[in-house]
Design goal:
- The protein is an alpha+beta fold and 447 residues long.
- The protein has two domains: 266 residues, Zn peptidases (Aminopeptidase, 3-Layer(aba) Sandwich); 173 residues, Alpha-Beta Plaits.
- The protein has twelve helices and 24 strands.
- Strands 1, 2, 3, 6, 7, 9, 20, 21 and 22 form a nine-stranded mixed β-sheet that branches. A five-stranded antiparallel β-sheet has the order 11-17-18-10-19, covered by helices on one side.
- A hairpin with a 2-residue loop joins strand 4 and strand 5.
- Helix 6 packs across helix 7, helix 7 packs across helix 8 and helix 11 packs across helix 12.
- It is globular and about 70 Å long.
- The termini are close together.
- The relative contact order is 0.18.
């Protein structure tokens, strides 16, 4: 039983918040190769800052392979508990949609606003400062605890793959990059391109990332009056700009596209309806529309452990080549090959060719797995929530990177998910509660 920890946890609340402000101020969006660093100078700065913070808390730190990753370690023993998270963030989107600059943190109404507060800087620091509280309480760890900081999670996971090539793997772990309680299954994550030669002459670009529902797209092409009329008829929100039309959507994470409004889909549906055609426009308008499950392509694709297939058109680029960047989350028991075959066949009817961009296989731990049972016991005891069951997710966390690993927090059951959206924010009292839960979880897993 862990005693006398409460005062040490309380003492870490202000340092945790101050460290999070420091990290959020670093705009760690991928800018591959910039400054001579793997994923850009800002991501490298965030990695060095995280290692500095950990070092000042008493951890041994390692800056890995020229900035691909880093880790911070404490404790003794042959066995290792890994806590895996990331320091890169998705682009902020339209700055005017934020209450303040997304990289200038704002504390308001008990919340800290800023890109990365939920995903994943805040949760990683909550776990880090939880271990600091254990250190200050005099806890002796019978395993090593290693925080592994990734730098490329929002794109291609090259960071964690490089770590796995070069470093010791933990025997078990958790990733604080989801929602409490325990995520025992994560869908397969397939990111893909549909490409074809542009024979339409239309030029159009929009969207910021595979894994974000696009909240706007700007159209500067022909027949803008007709487009506006059709958008009115369809009930799609838009705004006249100085030299074109901005079609409005609502941002959401690609794992829950039904909570967003896809601006690319709306524009393509309206363009198709007024007789403006291209391969990509026609594919989206006729096969996908606003259906987050792409039912016309895949049918009713779902399973009991993880629910429905999800499908998000994250980016469109109509240049000399038409290209759609798509993020799909596949149920854990579904065959990837079968889904690819279906999509390829439908896309081919429009002259579009399937190309795989990235694939992360699903994970699925039994409910009686020791990581699930241990973390559920801790969660129920220290959250007061005795009814919420372990869950599956469409998210993709580093829990997939090692064996015996699950996603665990840091969002509470009822906290609004704002990652990948304007005004991303962390509820500070919930972050402090997560720190408490993490402290008890680490204690249980290292005794």
């Amino acid at each position: 039983m862990l005693e006398n920890i409460d005062s040490h946890l309380a003492a870490q609340q202000e340092p945790l918040k101050a460290a999070l402000v420091e990290l959020v101020r670093i705009p760690s969006v991928c800018d591959e190769g910039a400054g001579g660093y793997p994923f850009g100078a800002a991501i490298d700065q965030a990695l060095r800052k995280a290692l500095q913070i950990a070092g000042e808390l008493g951890f041994k730190t390692h800056y890995g392979d020229g900035g691909y990753y880093g880790f911070a370690e404490v404790g003794e023993g042959a066995e290792m508990l890994g806590i895996l998270g990331h320091l890169d963030v998705v682009p902020p989107g339209k700055l005017q949609d934020w209450e303040r600059d997304p990289f200038d943190p704002l504390e308001k109404d008990g919340m800290l606003y800023g890109r990365g507060t939920q995903d994943d800087k805040g949760p990683m620091l909550a776990a880090l400062f939880a271990v600091k509280a254990l250190i200050d309480a005099g806890v002796k760890f019978n395993k090593r605890i290693r925080f592994i900081f990734g730098t490329d999670e929002e794109t291609l996971w090259r960071c964690i793959n490089r770590y796995k090539e070069k470093e010791e793997l933990p025997g078990m772990g958790f990733s604080p990059d989801s929602r409490f309680p325990v995520t025992y299954a994560e869908k397969g994550l397939l990111q893909l391109l549909l490409e074809g030669h542009n024979e339409s002459g239309i030029r159009l670009t929009g969207g910021s990332a595979f894994n974000a529902v696009p909240d706007m797209i700007f159209y500067q092409g022909e027949r803008q009056d007709d487009l506006a009329d059709k958008l009115d008829q369809l009930g799609f929100e838009y705004e006249w700009m100085e030299d074109g039309i901005e079609v409005k959507g609502r941002a959401a994470h690609a794992m829950i596209p039904e909570q967003g409004i896809n601006a690319i889909a709306r524009l393509c549906m309206a363009l198709h309806a007024i007789g403006i055609h291209s391969k990509a426009i026609d594919f989206i308008a006729q096969e996908i529309g606003q259906d987050p499950n792409a039912t016309r392509v895949f049918g009713e694709c779902a399973d009991a452990p993880s629910g429905k297939l999800k499908f998000n058109v994250g980016k469109i680029d109509l240049g000399k080549v038409e290209q759609l960047s798509i993020d799909s989350r596949l149920p854990v028991t579904v065959s990837k090959e079968e889904m690819v075959a279906r999509l390829s066949a439908v896309a081919a009817k429009y002259g579009l060719e399937y190309k795989e961009f990235d694939w992360l296989a699903p994970i699925y731990l039994p409910l009686d797995h020791f990581m699930v049972t241990t973390l559920m016991k801790v969660y129920r005891q220290y959250s007061g929530d005795t009814s919420t069951e372990p869950k599956s997710s469409g998210g993709a966390t580093y829990a997939r990177a090692i064996n015996n690993c699950v996603a665990f927090g840091a969002l509470t059951v009822d906290e609004e998910l704002t990652e990948h959206q304007p005004n991303e924010r962390a509820v500070l009292k919930n972050l402090y509660k997560a720190m408490e839960i993490y402290a008890h979880a680490v204690y249980e897993l290292t005794q």
